[in-house]
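Fatty acid desaturase
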Amino acid sequence: MAKDMAASTAAPDYSLTGERAHHAVAAGLATAEWYHSDIPRKTMKELMRRSDQPALRDTAIWVALHILFAAGGIALWGSWWAVPFWLAYGVIYGSACDSRWHEAGHGTAFKTSWMNDVVYHIASFQVMRNPIAWRWSHARHHTDTIIVGRDPEIAWMHPINLTLKALAYIGIVEAWTSLKILARQALGKLSDDEKDYVPEAELPKAVFWARVHMAIYIATGATALGMALAGMGWASVIPLLLIGLPRIYGCWHMVMMGLLQHGGLAEDVLDHRLNSRTVYINPVSGWIYWNMQYHIEHHMFPMVPYHALPKLHALIKDDLPPPNTSIADAYREMWGAVMRQRSDPSHYVRKELPPSARPYRDELHQFVPDRSDA
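Tokens:
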């Protein structure tokens, strides 16, 4: 009896090599066929058409804002007027990088492959992610979205630790964790989970890029230390404000939007309308986030470029649950569900579909531990 109670209250195994991973495969949840809204083939080809122009425009603005805010922060160093510049620089560096990493990683931001690669590597560095390991991690995330034991990018794991979720908005814990992962990878040590989704032939590349990232961080720290030893006082912090620290203090927008993607929604289902969330947000946040607020649409059709997602949404919204009307509205919904999930992990938000929508592909594969030896 005691053994049964312990099994029922134990934290789920979210690793990619444990019991839940075997269950996902046995239950037909791994690399499964997902629900998709119907779109005519010709229309889909048009939506998937890639172009360099939107991303060139947005990337030019992104680079220019880095330069503008950094220059203002340096020029006004020593006065309070520098603070707004560094705060803005932090968001452009520590939050906008996430959506750029994401879209360039999909290869859809630009039509020209090398442009995707350049932005992908720069943004991966800024968000402190190994560009090789995370490319394959994200591919798995799309193949097995929020499938326990398969998806390496599940943000809301049970039991939910609200303290760590709150700390995520200021980035200290996650940045330190990411730095330790990069250091481990730079030493040639890949975890069992990483080896599960990164092809063996790609592992040396993952080690190489981890070493490149760590070399840059070490050089930045050495520069700051050298400036301090040269008697430059607080100005020695500037190299760290340019590289590294913005991932901590500027990540709040990335976290604010990222937690909404799947928070409070279903695990182990094969319908993105049940495990992903679309939210209407303001244009500034939409630019920072590169339209990932259309998250159901993105997961259904990940090869549609970010700039075409509003059009995709308009085409299929009658087959989707109503979007949340604002960031605040989405947080009210998500936090209500999250608080219930702390005592009832099986709970999730199940939004009502419009009459025009096809029914949910409602395949919730609840995991029941094997207790045959109890």
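Residues 1-9 have pLDDT under 50 and may be disordered.
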